[in-house]
Automatic annotation (TrEMBL):
Protein name, per record: Uncharacterized protein
Domain of life (superkingdom): Bacteria
Species whose genome carries this gene: Janthinobacterium lividum
Length: 172
């Protein structure tokens, strides 16, 4: 098994970039409220700035209507968090660790009295973990592995974590 630290998302990097990215998103929104952006010049400028800060293709994010999704804070977090990187020698145990993380959104903190960045955004690591699995497992298919299933009587059920790992592991 890889060290747990190697498997976890680089939250310190996200925390470093988060405030700047959030400020840019909110400034763009304020600009649009006051002046509009019919020619998309400000949108393009924002996308370029965010891409330079994050190294990500920003076209996959909804910068215009974030308020209809998860909010500016979560959008800024998702942009600030680096994409997963391909690791060599990933084991079945590593995959099981990631599948388990998808089912629990708590990161251990020494002082839980005041939520820290990691605690605040731990519930929004799902995209990162799914991208990690897609990168490392050839058989990754969200609907087949993580989606709801129905039996012949229409009763709904989900795969257990072990069943998910069994489907992800054999054809890495």
């Amino acid at each position: 098994m890889k060290s747990e630290q190697a498997l976890e998302p680089p939250l310190a990097v996200a925390e470093e970039k988060y405030a700047t990215i959030l400020a840019l998103i909110l400034a763009y929104t304020q600009f649009c409220d006051e002046h509009g952006d019919d020619d998309n010049a400000e949108y393009d400028r924002l996308a370029d700035q965010l891409q330079a800060l994050s190294g990500k293709d920003i076209s996959r994010f909804n910068l215009r209507e974030w308020w209809e999704e998860e909010g500016a804070e979560v959008l800024a977090f998702r942009i600030a968090l680096p994409d997963p990187v391909k690791l060599d020698g990933v084991s079945r145990t590593d995959i099981a660790h990631i599948v388990a993380r998808l089912g629990s959104f708590e990161l251990p903190e020494k002082d839980a009295s005041e939520p820290r960045f990691q605690q605040i955004f731990s519930a929004f690591l799902d995209d990162y973990y799914h991208a990690w699995l897609k990168l490392h497992c050839k058989t990754y298919n969200y609907q087949k592995i993580f989606g709801v299933h129905k039996d012949k009587d229409g009763k709904r059920w989900w795969l257990s974590d072990d069943e998910k790992v069994d489907l992800l592991w054999p054809h890495r």
